[in-house]
C-alpha cells in the first residue's frame, strides 16, 4: 500500500466544472486584483473564524511582515517567539529590521514555553509572537493578560492552525493580528500561494490595508511606504470553493489522529500532548522517537510518505548566524528537530491507510527490540 501525504483532487470535489467555468470567466473578464471574489472570500473567512476583519495577502510570510509593519515594528524593537518554528516566523521579524528573541518550547506540547517567554521580556520588547504549531492552538489567555500588563502587542502565527480553537475561539483571533497561510500544504490550500491577516479592530484593519496596498489612501495618495501584497483573485475563488468543506476536513483529521493514537498505544513514540478546551486542526501528526531516521527509512520502504519537518532548528540555520545563537542554547527545540517525524494525515485518509502506517511503525520497533520496551521518557519542567 502507498500512503500519500497529499490528495489535491479530493479537495476539489467530484465535479469541478462550475469552478473551472468561474475561473475561465475571471481570466477572460480581467478580474485579477482586489475583485468581488477577493472581498467575498474575506467575508466568508471572517464569518468562519468569528472575526470582524480579514485581509487577503500574497503569502503567509507576507501576513507576518505586514502585521509587524502595521504595528510600526522595526529597528530597535524586539519580538519574542519560539525556537522550534518554521523559518518564515523569524524571517518576518528580521525583514522588518527588528530583533528576534527566541525562547524554547514545551517538550510535551511543542508550543512556546510561556515561563521562558515572560522571562525574556525586556525594555525593547514590543511583540509576543506565539505559534500555533502543527495545528495545536496555543492557550492564549495568559499570553494576552501578560501582554496587556506589559503594554505589548500580540501577533499569532496561525499559518498551520486554520480551524483550530481554544477556549471556544478560533486560533488567530486573540491577538492584535492573526496570520494565516494558504500554501498548498495547508489544511485550507490555494492552488499556489496565499495568506490572510485578521486584525483585532477597525483601526488595525486600516493600518494593515495600507501596508498591503502600497500605502495608499485613495488612488496615488501614498501616506505611508507600503507593500504590494494582495491575495490573487483566482486564488480567492479557489479558496471560497474549498472553505465550506474545511470543517468536515478538519473533523476527519481529528478522527484520523484518534486512530493513530489508539493504534500506536504501547509503541515507544511520543505524541503531541493534548490540552483541555482545545480543538486541534492536525495540520501535521508528529511522532517523536530517538530512532527517527531509521523509522523514516523503514516507512518509506513501505511506500509511506512520512517526512521530517524542520530538521535544523532556527537558531542553527546559516541565514540567522548574525544573531549569535549557539548549539544547546534551546535544547528542547534541538531535540525535537532530531526526533520528530510527520506521519501522513489528510482530510481523506482512510482507516486502512492509518492502520497500515501504524502497523509499519510497530513492525519497525518490535522486530528490532523487545516487545516489553518502555516508551522513552522526557523530563518535563513544571
Strand and helix order = HHHEHEHEHEHEEEEEHHEEEHHEH
Strand order of the largest sheet: 1-9-8-5-4-2-3
Rough outline: globular
What is the CA-based Rg, rounded? 21 Å
Structural class: alpha/beta
Q: Fraction of residues in helices?
A: 25-40%
Question: Topology of this protein?
Answer:
Elements: H1 8-12, H2 17-29, H3 36-49, E1 55-57, H4 60-70, E2 78-82, H5 87-95, E3 99-103, H6 114-120, E4 125-128, H7 141-150, E5 153-157, E6 165-166, E7 169-170, E8 177-181, E9 195-199, H8 202-212, H9 233-263, E10 270-271, E11 278-279, E12 285-288, H10 292-301, H11 331-339, E13 340-343, H12 351-366
Q: What features would you describe in this structure?
A:
This protein is α/β, with parallel strands linked by helices and 382 residues long. It is 38% helix and 13% strand. It contains 12 helices and 13 strands. It has helices at residues 8-12, 17-29, 36-49, 60-70, 87-95, 114-120, 141-150, 202-212, 233-263, 292-301, 331-339, 351-366, and strands spanning 55-57, 78-82, 99-103, 125-128, 153-157, 165-166, 169-170, 177-181, 195-199, 270-271, 278-279, 285-288, 340-343. A 7-stranded mixed beta sheet has the order 1-9-8-5-4-2-3, with helices on both faces. It has a 3-stranded antiparallel beta sheet with strand order 7-6-11, with no helix packed on it. A 3-stranded antiparallel beta sheet has the order 10-12-13. A hairpin with a 2-residue loop joins β6 and β7. α9 crosses α12 (351-366) and α10 (292-301) packs across α12. The longest helix is centred in the middle third of the chain and has 31 residues, at 233-263. It is globular. The termini are far apart.
Amino acid at each position: 500500500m502507498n500512503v500519500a501525504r497529499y490528495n489535491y483532487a479530493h479537495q476539489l470535489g467530484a465535479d469541478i466544472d462550475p469552478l473551472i467555468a468561474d475561473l475561465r470567466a475571471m481570466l477572460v473578464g480581467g478580474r485579477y486584483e482586489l475583485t468581488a471574489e477577493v472581498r467575498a472570500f474575506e467575508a466568508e473567512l471572517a464569518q468562519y473564524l468569528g472575526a470582524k476583519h480579514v485581509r487577503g495577502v500574497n503569502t503567509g510570510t507576507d501576513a507576518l511582515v505586514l502585521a509587524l509593519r502595521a504595528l510600526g515594528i522595526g529597528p530597535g524593537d524586539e519580538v519574542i517567539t519560539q525556537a522550534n518554528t518554521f523559518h518564515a516566523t523569524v524571517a518576518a521579524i528580521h525583514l522588518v529590521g527588528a530583533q528576534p528573541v527566541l525562547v524554547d518550547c514545551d517538550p510535551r506540547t511543542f508550543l512556546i514555553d510561556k515561563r521562558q517567554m515572560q522571562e525574556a521580556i525586556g525594555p525593547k520588547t514590543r511583540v509576543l509572537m506565539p505559534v500555533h504549531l502543527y495545528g495545536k492552538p496555543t492557550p492564549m489567555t495568559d499570553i494576552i493578560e501578560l501582554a496587556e500588563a506589559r503594554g505589548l502587542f500580540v501577533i499569532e502565527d496561525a499559518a498551520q492552525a486554520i480551524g483550530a480553537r481554544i477556549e471556544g475561539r478560533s486560533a488567530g483571533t486573540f491577538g492584535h493580528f492573526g496570520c494565516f497561510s494558504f500554501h498548498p500544504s495547508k489544511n485550507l490550500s490555494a492552488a499556489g500561494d496565499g495568506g490572510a491577516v485578521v486584525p483585532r479592530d477597525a483601526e488595525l484593519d486600516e493600518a494593515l490595508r495600507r501596508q498591503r496596498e502600497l500605502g495608499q489612501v485613495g488612488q496615488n495618495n501614498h501616506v505611508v511606504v507600503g507593500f504590494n501584497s494582495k491575495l490573487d483573485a483566482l486564488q480567492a475563488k479557489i479558496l471560497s470553493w474549498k472553505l465550506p468543506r474545511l470543517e468536515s476536513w478538519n473533523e476527519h483529521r481529528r478522527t484520523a489522529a484518534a486512530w493513530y493514537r489508539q493504534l500506536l498505544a504501547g509503541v515507544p513514540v511520543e505524541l503531541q500532548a493534548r490540552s483541555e478546551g482545545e480543538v486541534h486542526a492536525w495540520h501535521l501528526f508528529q511522532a517523536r522517537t530517538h530512532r527517527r531516521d531509521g523509522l523514516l527509512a523503514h516507512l518509506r520502504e513501505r511506500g509511506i510518505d512520512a517526512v521530517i519537518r524542520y530538521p535544523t532548528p532556527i537558531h542553527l540555520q546559516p541565514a540567522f548566524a548574525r544573531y549569535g545563537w549557539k548549539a544547546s542554547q534551546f535544547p528542547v527545540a534541538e531535540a525535537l528537530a532530531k526526533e520528530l517525524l510527520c506521519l501522513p494525515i489528510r482530510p481523506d485518509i482512510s482507516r486502512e491507510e492509518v492502520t497500515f502506517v501504524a502497523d509499519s511503525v510497530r513492525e519497525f520497533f518490535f522486530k528490532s527490540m523487545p516487545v516489553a520496551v518502555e516508551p522513552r521518557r522526557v523530563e518535563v519542567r513544571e
